[in-house]
């Protein structure tokens, strides 16, 4: 009778371990990050609009350039801000790192 109890215990523990293993497999993965030096461009006019960007650290200036070379600032993005929204196929603005910046 003790053997049956041990066997049932092993099956129970095995199932619990399998659940824990599955839970680890489906946990969200941290996205890869990209390190930008000050002045580097995250995206610019004409780039394919494929994803959103989250500023992890640093600062980004998001702007539109006019024909005469001036920049019209849309926003400044800081850690935890998300940029790159839009419904067009390509970006119509530029996002440039103001200081060393990490984005995901």
Essential attributes:
4-stranded antiparallel beta sheet, Jelly Rolls, globular, alpha+beta
Brief sketch in words of this structure:
The protein has one helix and eight strands, in the order αββββββββ.
Question: Structural class, from helix and strand content?
Answer: alpha+beta
From the N-terminal CA to the C-terminal CA, the straight-line distance is 57 Å
Number of helices: 1
**Named CATH topology of the domain at 34-103:** Jelly Rolls
Instruction: Detail the poorly predicted runs.
Output: 5-23
Rounded to an integer in angstroms, the radius of gyration calculated over CA atoms is 24 Å
The level-1 CATH class of the domain at 34-103: Mainly Beta
Mean pLDDT: 82
CATH homologous superfamily designation of the domain at 34-103: Jelly Rolls
Number of E-type strands: 8
Which percent range describes the beta-strand content? 25-35%
Query: What is the general shape?
Result: globular
Query: What is the H/E string?
Result: HEEEEEEEE
Largest sheet: 4 strands, antiparallel
Q: How are the strands ordered across the major sheet?
A: 1-8-3-6
* Percent helix: 10-25%
- CATH architecture group name of the domain at 34-103: Sandwich
